[in-house]
Each structure stands twice: as C-alpha cells, then as structure tokens.
Design a protein that fits this description.
Blueprint: E1 9-13, E2 25-31, E3 34-45, E4 49-55, E5 66-70, E6 74-78, H1 81-104
Antiparallel strand pairs: 1-6, 2-3, 2-6, 3-4, 4-5
C-alpha cells in the first residue's frame, strides 16, 4: 500500500506537527499495511521521533491511539482553505491585471467615439 493523501490534504513531515495541528483530522501510513485516519489529540517530540496521540480510536481489537514516527515521516493534514483561497484570488487578480495591461498595448483604440 502506498498512501499519498487526498486532494483536500497536504503533506507535512511529522517533525513539523505542533500545537496548531491539535484537533485536526490527520492521516498517515505507519507501516506498509496500515493507513490511519484520526483526530490528533497530542504531539510529543524528541530529537529522533515524534509521538502522536489520537482521539477516539483506541480500545479496538486492532486500533491503536498512539504512534511513534520518524521526524521525516509523511503526515497528511487538511489544506488551509483560507490561505489556499487567498493565493487563488491573488493569482486570478494578477492574471486580470496582465490581461488589462496587454489589451492596452495592442495598438487598438478601444475607447467609445462620438
């Protein structure tokens, strides 16, 4: 199995997870056979490992609520919709500006005449 997240997620190295990710639903592949989806309850970090605690997935036959991952391990977090929307709007505004500037340089007189 080779999990690569969904379109609504972005990849973050486990070592970059912090308190601003607490409460978010994350996903990751701790081994070659398992994909985990859960709400992040806590993060602990050492120089070599990150320890994740998930809310509401423990006590099952095969479900764990704690995972230890290397700092570079891929973890998928939700895309920040506001930041994503801001960059999309800025890109579109830039294209509109380019188009408006480009229209004036074609040598055509586009003003209304009486």
């Amino acid at each position: 199995m080779d999990y690569t997240g969904s379109q609504s997620e972005k990849v973050v190295p486990a070592g970059e997870l912090g308190r601003n990710h607490i409460g978010q639903t994350i996903s990751f592949q701790p081994n070659e056979f398992t994909v985990v989806f859960g709400k992040l309850a806590g993060v602990a970090r050492t120089e070599a490992m990150v320890y994740l605690s998930l809310q509401g997935v423990g006590n099952g036959t095969h479900l764990k609520d704690e995972y230890d991952l290397p700092l570079t391990h891929d973890v998928y977090v939700p895309v920040d919709v506001i930041t994503n929307a801001e960059s999309t709007i800025k890109d579109l505004f830039g294209k509109v500006q380019e188009n408006l500037r480009g229209a004036g340089h074609k040598g055509e007189d586009r003003t209304d005449k009486l």
